[in-house]
Design brief:
With 120 residues, this protein is mainly β. The chain is built from no helices and 11 strands. Strands 2, 4, 5, 6, 9, 10 and 11 form a 7-stranded mixed β-sheet that branches. A 4-stranded antiparallel β-sheet has the order 1-3-8-7, with no helix packed on it. The chain starts with a strand and ends with a strand.
Length: 120
């Protein structure tokens, strides 16, 4: 069974940093793409950053220049380094992985989420 486990959330002051980690039950390099999404209270879940199997990355405009997504194959983890945090970054952050299944199509998996709080 495929599972994604997030860690690293917590409280950070404005301008501070946090590093989130996503550890799948399978090897990270077997996922077509792994990404981070976030959902503030009362809002829709939205893309933060993604990294593909060949290490291509994408970022939401709101986090460009502040967040960095990376993959560590040896430790089998995808990190989201969050620098210069702002109150508007406060949200539950979810790890998402897309992985090929027997049908040849991708299936989407979600982690349980980790809370990030940046007070005003």
């Amino acid at each position: 069974q495929v599972r994604l486990v997030e860690s690293g959330g917590g409280l950070a002051q404005p301008g501070g940093s946090l590093r989130l980690s996503c550890t799948p039950s399978q090897s990270v390099y077997t996922f077509y793409v792994i990404g981070w999404y976030r959902q503030p209270p009362g809002s829709q879940r939205a893309l933060v950053a993604t990294i593909t199997h060949d290490r291509k990355t994408t970022y939401a405009d709101s986090v460009k220049g502040r967040f960095g997504i990376s993959r560590d194959d040896h430790d089998n983890v995808v990190h989201l380094q969050m620098d210069n945090l702002k109150p508007e970054d406060s949200a539950v952050y979810y790890c998402q992985g897309k992985r090929d299944i027997d049908s040849g199509e991708l299936y989407t998996y979600w982690g349980q989420g980790t809370q990030v709080t940046v007070p005003t």
